[in-house]
Amino acid sequence: MRVRTVYSVAAVTSLALLSGCGAADMTKQASPFANAQGAKTVTLSVQSWVGAQANVAVAQYLLEHKLGYRVDTVQVDEVPAWDALSQGRVDAILEDWGHPDQEKRYVDDKKTITRAGGLGVTGHIGWYVPTYLVKQHPDITNWKNLNKYSSLFRTAESGSKGQLMDGSPSYVTNDKALVTNLKLDYQVVFAGSEAAQITQMKQFAKEKKPFLTYWYAPQWLFKKVPMTEVKLPAYKEGCDADAAKVACAYPHTPLEKYLNTDFAKRGGKAAAFLKKFNWTTEDQNEVSLMIADQKLSPADAAKKWVDNHPSTWKAWLS
Questions:
Q1: What is the reported pTM?
Q2: Beta strands in the chain (DSSP E)
Q3: N or C: where does the chain have the smaller number of CB atoms within 10 Å of the terminal CB?
């Protein structure tokens, strides 16, 4: 679901940047390598959050340097990426946070997209406040107490209400419905992208100011800005089925990979490799931190991770 419906995955400050799940829809800008008959080429969809960029960076590095493929990447928003994958404009999505409508349409009915197994990472979206604020107001982590503290979160953008900061409008989010259905005195304000949201959170943290934000794990920023999740009404299967009536927390979602069905059948070693690509939250965060915080290029971050973790990635090539 992520975000993102519920996220997955996040933005960045590089790759033009892939920051923020608010990237332009580029499904019509197909890769020059897509459907290149007989060529050792792969086209990967890059989602606009840094965790997804980390996946692609490592996969691209190994495909190019260990398997001899040419790799192209195309940045596409979450839902349009499914259309692009179905049409063969891209060959693979490496981090999906759960899109049941698209899965039914393309995987189950049309069969133009094939499941490629789990990424190995479990994603979770939630509402978070900085841990330094929790130390001052321990009960702020229960949603029932949020109205009591709404004045702490007022900004120029939220007016007389507290601000609930979201990232990009392109993320699938239940936040507006949650605010309405839980009768909270808050206004959802979009930062515009993951990168812009991170900038705001880091600035708030530097000044020790209160903030309430939509955020997700895995995400490298937790190492820089410790945050505590606000407990929303417990998630139960189906409680988010009607987007307008959602009044529950986001689920924990095992992140999945998907391949274009033709590529899954004819993609040879590349397709086999992507099916085996599976790593941990710690692995992803390690690469994400290098890209977003240490300002390494995605290729340099991938090389550094590959050099330090041969026992992990060699299993993907066997």
A1: 0.78
A2: 41-46, 70-75, 92-96, 113-130, 162-166, 186-190, 212-217, 227-230, 252-260
A3: C
